[in-house]
């Protein structure tokens, strides 16, 4: 049964109106996942605020599929706008799939290996097309070879870190040339734009300054060639799930994340439970990264929010996680990220970290400088002046946030 309930155990601690609207949105999404229509919108709720929250969380498509029938009569204009947003979600999913294939073919044509990450594979786990929004596509690329000592494992070409850095720089130049020929313009280190597409090309799965980097130090370690190709790779369902948890944790620990990650969690868990996956392997790998508890929090909360409530009578709810997901945007916010980093350090440590994030940051964001360390002073000078003079309001807000949070403590 999918009946919207006021969640009396949550009412006491989640008494803000916006969070209650978030709970109703989750109810609508749960109904969509199970092919039913939601209960009537509760008294005191407005359709406009529900649609605004769906946009904020980038779940317009899936939420539209679970709306109660009366919205089309009560708010025809809003229903039409919501329908259009859902159509865009479906269009982007299909268009990104085709564009991703075209980009992979072009990268493969110059000898670059490719592996699509996250979104496009997760879309296939949803019950219907058009349920999951696509804001970009992420592709891992590089010149790759089999590991001589482990024939089923691949890595970047080269026998030493220095050689591999050189190879990665060559790969970056080749990939940039491909994207330019396809009509894309580069807007940051990994991002390329050609309307309506946003593509990110990655040479790492996790950046070297991440605590999860050790597990993904060889970004191709979990890659498996697809049938009929020596240059195109994918992860197994188990490794896709593991990467989903790692990627979600990365966002959660930095800028934060929203409800869409929780929906991904639910559909992936459903797919794993019906696909005969190796759960022991998943648990073992998550334990290596220290993410078992985080995965459990996500999995239990996702089951509670989106499965049959009759199966959840004895479930304990992670109120902190639920409130953060409902309060965030789809990918958190820069302010949330700043607050997270500030809380980890004292003022001196934070200022030092902002000026020098560490060598891992250089390796992940500026591989050319990593291969030529004598450019590091110039990089830091450029980082300082560009950060201060191109984004003065952001820096001022960051300083105010730093002083406020430290004085409050």
UniProtKB/TrEMBL annotation:
Pfam families to which the protein is assigned, alphabetical: NTP_transf_5 (PF14907)
Please give the start and end residues of each transmembrane region: 374-390
Record keywords: Membrane, Transmembrane, Transmembrane helix
UniProt name for this protein: Nucleotidyltransferase family protein
């Amino acid at each position: 049964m999918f009946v919207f309930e006021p969640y009396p155990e949550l009412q006491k601690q989640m008494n803000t109106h916006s969070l209650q609207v978030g709970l109703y949105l989750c109810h609508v999404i749960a109904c969509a996942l199970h092919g039913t229509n939601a209960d009537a919108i509760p008294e005191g709720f407005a359709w406009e605020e529900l649609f605004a929250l769906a946009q904020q969380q980038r779940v317009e498509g899936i939420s539209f599929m679970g709306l109660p029938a009366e919205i089309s009569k009560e708010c025809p204009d809003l229903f039409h706008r919501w329908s259009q947003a859902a159509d865009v979600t479906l269009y982007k999913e299909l268009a990104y799939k085709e564009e991703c294939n075209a980009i992979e073919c072009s990268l493969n044509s110059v000898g670059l290996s490719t592996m699509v990450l996250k979104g496009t594979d997760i879309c296939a786990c949803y019950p219907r097309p058009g349920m999951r929004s696509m804001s970009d596509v992420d592709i891992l690329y590089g010149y790759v070879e089999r590991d001589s000592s482990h024939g089923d494992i691949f890595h970047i070409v080269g026998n030493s870190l220095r050689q591999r850095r050189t190879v990665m720089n060559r790969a970056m130049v080749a990939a940039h040339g491909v994207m330019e020929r396809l009509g894309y313009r580069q807007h940051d280190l990994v991002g390329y734009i050609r309307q309506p597409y946003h593509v990110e090309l990655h040479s790492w799965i996790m950046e070297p300054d991440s605590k999860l980097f050790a597990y993904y130090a060889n970004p191709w370690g979990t890659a498996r060639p697809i049938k009929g190709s020596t240059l195109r790779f994918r992860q197994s369902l188990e490794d896709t799930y593991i990467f989903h948890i790692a990627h979600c944790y990365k966002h959660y620990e930095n800028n934060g994340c929203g409800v869409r990650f929780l929906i991904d969690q639910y559909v992936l868990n459903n797919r794993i439970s019906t696909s005969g996956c190796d759960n022991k392997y998943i648990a073992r790998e998550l334990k290596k990264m220290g993410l078992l508890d985080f995965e459990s929090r996500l999995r239990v909360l996702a089951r509670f929010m989106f499965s049959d409530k009759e199966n959840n009578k004895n479930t304990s709810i992670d109120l902190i996680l639920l409130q953060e997901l409902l309060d965030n945007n789809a990918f958190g916010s820069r302010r949330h990220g700043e607050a997270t980093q500030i809380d980890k350090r004292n003022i001196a440590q934070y200022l030092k970290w902002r000026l020098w994030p560490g060598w891992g940051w250089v390796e992940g964001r500026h591989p050319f400088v990593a291969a030529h360390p004598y450019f590091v002073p110039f990089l830091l000078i450029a980082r300082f002046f560009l950060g201060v003079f191109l984004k003065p309001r952001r820096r001022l807000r960051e300083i105010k946030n730093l002083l406020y949070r430290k004085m409050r403590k």
